[in-house]
Amino acid sequence: MLQVAGVDKRKWGGGGGHVCTVGSCRGAVSPPDMSVPGMHGSCTGHTGQGVGSCWGQGDLRMTLSLQQAQELYRDALAGGQSSFLLQQEGAGGDVFSCSLGNLPPGEEAALTLRYVCELPLEPDGATRYLLPAMLRPRYTPHRWDGEDVTQGVQRVPPGELPYTLSLSITLQLPHGIDRVLSNCSLTPLSYRAGNQTTAQVSLAQEPPWDRDMELLVHYAELHKPSAVLEAGLPEVEPGSLMGDPAVMVTLLPSLLEALPGQSLAGEFIFLLDRSGSMACPMDGLDYSAQRIDSAKETLVLLLKSLPLGCYFNIYGFGSWFESFYPQSVGYTQQTMAESLQRVQQLQADLGGTEILAPLQAIYRSPCLDGHPRQLFVFTDGEVRNTQDVIAEVQRHRGAHRCFSFGIREGASMALVKGIARAAGGSAEFITGQDRMQPKALQSLKRALQPAVTGISLSWDLPPGMEAALLGWGPEVIFPGQRCLIYAQLRGQPQPSDTAVGGVTLQYCIQDQTYKEMLQFPLQPQDGDR
């Protein structure tokens, strides 16, 4: 049997305060009297879409298509050679598996997985990092013919885990670190610079394995814009993504709140997960509130906070779905009172987690003139057809905004963040002792704000250089919402350490134009990666 060599070592580093680089190293030792023919492990991460599969043998590493990598791995095993295969599992984009084969007797192997992820922003301004502790089963919709990633994973009781965790965290923030909080025991925060822009902290003891580990980082100057430059790799030819420098710009636009007397009309549709798992406790403890009860309390609060003159409807979904009204109804004292009474009667009694069908029904319902549609989705689940759901939301992005809420540890980040991003909304996650209401009210506040239009970016760079956006540019901006912009800097590198670039974000709200401007050095500074 495989002996795991004691430690899953993880290093967490903050880059510019709003993204982190995670390195996870897991050691394994083959017993001295036998070789290990093949072993398999899975892990979860907060990464985006994968680009293929990685096969390796000795010092050789190759990124290939899935089929090519699997064939090479099987051929190496059949030939008695040591080999490994790392691949993204399923369509969700957040589960990776690694297979290691033919480890000779007494030999050691170390698997290091590195990834970069954006850190979500909490209502109080802290950034949040979550280290998944478990790979949870995912719901498979009826007649789903795709693969099921989690069913083949070995289940191990928390008290019998064959490894421990060592975690060290290095924080680098342009404008200072205030404090770091966690649901696990940490060592005291140790500042490495007099201006408190660099600090280190570690786990003080082994974390509990029955829940995800959470870190909250609070900033000294949250709303101050910043830019972080990453130099290109010296061994890679300039002109490519990895060979050119890249910049991440962080902006928190100072948008004005909606003024009194402005029209707050809209159509608000609430889609509530009523699958059987919503009857489980919020934090896995029998004495904590059920997820469905927390969601119902939040729904009551949202209903009472809607503006007069709007329209609304409430859907519940599981293996099937149902709605309070055939079409959205006007928000009056009578319809609100009737809906509040019906909300109190809702139960987690609709079976599985089939979210695609109710979304399609909502989109078939025509939008109301003069009432922009705002969709609020509450779910605790993970589904196999994540990409189908995101694609359905994406097809209707021009007609609505989607605000999503993941309830419990283990809610699918790919699903919750994917549908919000696809329709220009925001995503929130509620775990453990978190209260759902403040996050829901924050999203409602954003939904009530006037639309931001005319969003554009302009770059001020020295002659011979240009910026190419990586991924989507900002399409929707809300008051107090962070805006992360990534760009590849092409052209000749600047020899002078004093060379600077600039970026201007311009947008319009109700015929008023706003600008956010920021300058950044074109050479890596202390703390830049």
Description:
This protein has 529 residues and is α+β, with helices and mostly antiparallel strands. It has seven helices and 28 strands. It has helices at residues 66-78, 291-305, 333-344, 356-364, 386-395, 413-422, 436-447, and strands at residues 3-15, 19-29, 39-44, 53-57, 60-64, 83-88, 95-101, 108-118, 127-131, 164-172, 177-182, 190-191, 198-202, 213-219, 226-230, 246-251, 267-273, 311-317, 321-323, 329-330, 373-379, 400-407, 427-430, 453-460, 465-469, 483-491, 500-509, 512-521. The strands form six sheets. Strands 17, 18, 19, 20, 21, 22 and 23 form a seven-stranded mixed beta sheet that branches. It has a six-stranded mixed beta sheet with strand order 8-2-1-10-13-12, with no helix packed on it. Strands 3-7-6-4-5 form a five-stranded antiparallel beta sheet, with helices on one face. Helix 6 links the parallel strand 22 and strand 23. Helix 2 (291-305) packs antiparallel against helix 3 (333-344) and helix 2 packs parallel to helix 7 (436-447). The longest helix has 15 residues, at 291-305. Mean pLDDT is 77; it is low at 1-8, 38-42, 44-52 and 258-263.
